[in-house]
Fold each of these.
Amino acid sequence: MSALAPVAGRAWVFGDQIDTDVLAPGAYMLEPIEVLASHCLEAIEPGFATSVQVGDVIVAGRSFGIGSSREQAVLALRHLGIRAIVAHSFARIFYRNSLALGLPVLICDDLEGVETGQPIRLDVAAASLDAGGRTRACEPLPDFLLDMLDAGGLIEQLSRQLAAERA
Amino acid sequence: MKPSGTAGAATLAQKIIARAAGRETVAVGEHVTCEVDLVLSHDSSGPRRYAQRLEALGVPVWDPDKVVLVTDHFVPATDARSANVLAMTRRWAKDNGVNNFYDMQGICHVVLPEKGHLRPGMLAVGGDSHSPTGGAYGAFMVGIGATDMTGVLATGRIWLRVPRTIRVEWTGALGPAMSAKDMILHLCAKLGMGNDYRVIEFAGETVTGLPMSERMVLTNMSAELGAKTGIIAADATTLADIRARGGDVADAVIDQYRSDDNAEFEAEHRFDAADLPPQVAAPHSPDNTRPVDEHLGVAVDQAYIGACTGAKHTDLQMAAAVLKGRKVRSGTRLMIAPASLEATRLAAADGTLEILTEAGAILLPTGCGACAGMGAGALAAGETCISSTSRNFRGRMGDPGSSVYLASPFTVAAAAVAGEIVDPREFVA
Ligand code: SF4
């Protein structure tokens, strides 16, 4: 399924500066992704990994993903079935990692009133979010990043391009 | 946002990005594709993360001569796992013709300029969050993750969004026992850590009066400001440093790569270095910074001088200025992990090392070590450390129950002597 397919799930709302140590705790970095993911966000939201469902969306404040450049922070969320992250702002390496690994990230200034557990709908290509009873506009992604998400990530996009060049 | 700036005027970052994108000008917010001039990679986020993916793509490294690979995180090997990572890294460098391979020579951000790879105006990427360090040489250098790195190694190109620039100007002379570390810790407190996507351009007479190693502290910890990168326009000091290492660089880069006088900055901040007291960041965040007198008397179990941020030759000299003729207090351990072999060599040649060892410092191997939570110098639950490194996030240097204060090498050395946090100005003549 393309990362650009419509997203429908529940919101998980977090505050500012959720760091990569909280997303992918250093102590489990050498464990397989299933184990690492089972500790994702537990420091601030115990039970997150067991209650999160495929299709859920993270809604966060400023500088989401601040800290190290570890890609496991994205991989853990992806492994748990998170389909997208919408935040006021992202730490830039996390933002790039997420796009490169095919997990949609959208910047949105209008997140007031969204609460954990509420149903959420998201159209990544249209940068449109339905949450907390109304439609909210996100910053649209340029076409080449939508293409990257559609391919499943940067490596997959490159493979597509290389295959097209070789054909 | 204050609408300063005139049409056509550009910031230093915009000029470099435009040149690398093959464009006349670029506008803030635009997405562009740039040709990469230089790639920095290390053993942790390096070949072990991208070798297989490159192989799967079936393409060679686009230009091995533009790649610099350094072993620093896992050195020296302490167990079979780290030894295997290093062996794999060495093999990959050889197999892929990466001749700029520096094995156990020092921490990547310090080795890169030491070996003369940086030039003003370069567009560079590094597989590490402290890659902004290279901005001290007037280069635009950003950190990227392993997948992005795979893309750069395969194609030599990267997409970037043209950032806004925040200009930070420092005037006035730093007082005794003061350093660039105090300036950047102060900025962490004043500007916070949420400067996402922004470039921080450091300027002013205080900055241009700093040697390259101190300028690197400012750009290094731009990462802690949350910025995309930090940058300092090249000047005579920059060119002299490059030339002293045998590098070729034209005087023209000074005029070519600087922000236009009427360039548009998102914000312009002014600070006075003369008024600044020593700064200390309390656990567990660099923005938790206050003047040293608000932390006086905090007992320390360990004082640590290390990392790309705080263990270059000049940092070791700062520690020695405090430690000369003094002893580390019993009950406190002072550990020093020089940032590079060059730092160790210069410190040995000028007598700095002798002062440190006479004072009772424990010398650790060169490498990331305890800064990355690896190697020697880890902390136990309940222990307190004062450190010249860049980050004090919970658990970074050991047990999650440990506490780390960040400070300059002067302040760290003074705490080692006193056994508690003290004002280092009392220790220098
Ligand atoms: S010394 Fe510390 S901050 Fe510098 S590269 Fe190594 S781990 Fe990162």
Note: Chain B touches chain A at residues 31, 45, 49, 53, 56-59, 127-129, 142-148, 150-151, 154-155, 159, 193-194, 196-197, 226, 228, 373, 393-396 (CB under 8 Å).
Amino acid sequence: MTAPRTSPSQDDGYNFAYLDEQTKRMIRRAILKAVAVPGHQVPFGSREMPLPYGWGTGGIQVTASIIGLKDVLKVIDQGADDTTNAVSIRRFFAKTAGVATTEKTDEATIIQTRHRIPEMGLGDDQIIVYQVPIPEPLRWLEPRETETRKMHGLADYGVMHVKLYEDIAKYGHIETSYDYPVLVNDRYLTAPSPIPKFDNPKMHGMGALQLFGAGREKRIYAIPPFTRVASLDFEDHPFEVQAWDQSCAICGADDSYLDEVITDDQGGSMFVCSDTDYCQRRVAAGHKGAGDA
Amino acid sequence: MMDAYRQNHDDGPLLRAAGISHFYGDRIGCRDVGFELWPGEILGVVGESGSGKSTLLNCLSSQIVPIAGRLSYRLRTGETADIYDLSEAERRMLMRTDWGFVHQNPRDGLRMGVSAGANVGERLMAVGERHYGNIRGQVTDWLGRVEMDMDRMDDLPTQFSGGMQQRVQIARNLVTGPRLVFLDEPTGGLDVSVQARLLDLLRGLTNDLGLSAVIVTHDLAVARLLSHRLMVMRRGEVVEQGLTDQVLDDPQHAYTQLLVSSVLQT
């Protein structure tokens, strides 16, 4: 192995990708274990990072441990490449690792995400890293960590359906719309991080390796490529994703996850793709939306 | 009920405890307790506070594995299982299908953050029921059987009175049709008129379903009303056991005599 190359833009004051080599090895061991047991939460020694908990400290540590000189990094926050969190983390790695960054989904080898999966299908040469606030899907139903671990050990997951039951009893349908619990590889109940349930079907059989990092909660888990991921549901209330009456005002897409954007103080709003890269590609390909914005 | 009682009698006891002893450090929880519980039979355990009733109940329901003793249970399949030798997964399965545990304080036995209906339906979902309509139907049926108003089904237990919470807890335990129920002071902390209605309900349910039960209480009136046989405990040991009427009307042990005589006579 050659010593890490210092690119012109890399800051010499830091080790490659900020974390020291021992920490990266520790995190890689946790990742290997997580990949070996799909959906199982592996504890790791989460480090203090130069950004607050809740801003992606887990995801950033996972990315730092797997990123190499030749990687191309894309970072999205709620689907967008140009929001504060995404811009900051992209700049962080450009500075500390000197790696190339991109906004194009298909050019990236590593995609770190907060709350979305890109609309474009991911391939087996890519890795997606999720930022996770609460890795334990049973947490709101069972506050004791000792008990949730036992429940995972025994695959004792009936209580998760209690939450879905409660939704139907209250609203007539399953109201849970993000962080919708999934069963990975028919074994472990797993929190998909707060992605909209619109993205849940994309996790099933995905070509890319999916890594999840929770910095504050000190847990890493993973879904290997082409793994079965099932969203929980009832036989008479099957899992459904969100749908919109509108299509994107900019690119006219009717198959992507839409954000409602308030445009004035008179209650005016428009619906646009949450995935900015997807939207721009469609516009470049000549698609147009009905929006006059 | 007596028919069901006799019918099942030939198959041998449902639960057999022998030499159950548990200590907390140097302190005695219970010592050398043994009995047989037959199908359809209700066993009362009485004694003052600190006499080891609750420790015994926790040992019997395998929430504590005692330091010494054997507990064998006849499964639905007819086989006899040694409860303390079962794996945690098997014990949990038994606990939520064939057994029930009604806590004195409904807060210990209910999920206070979800509706009454979800509380009752939880066991069904835990054993794999995945059809909302079916779950809803059974929940409605059971809330009816414990005389709850249907329009309270989707309310939180925190919004219920103590008596109603206890009814929900009972329905939650009986929904999977258990054969054995453990009750820890089920009427404790309720006022007398609510107690009376709850006791009526419990007696009706155990009769109709042919349930076996172990009921721990310090209230001799409750014991007389519900249980067929009675065990009197003192300082962790059983000092007297026999048919309920026999023990209460003709107590032999000095402590039982004291216990019986300390109830206000009307």
Note: Strands of chain B lie at 15-24, 27-37, 42-46, 68-74, 80-82, 99-102, 180-184, 212-216, 229-234, 237-243.
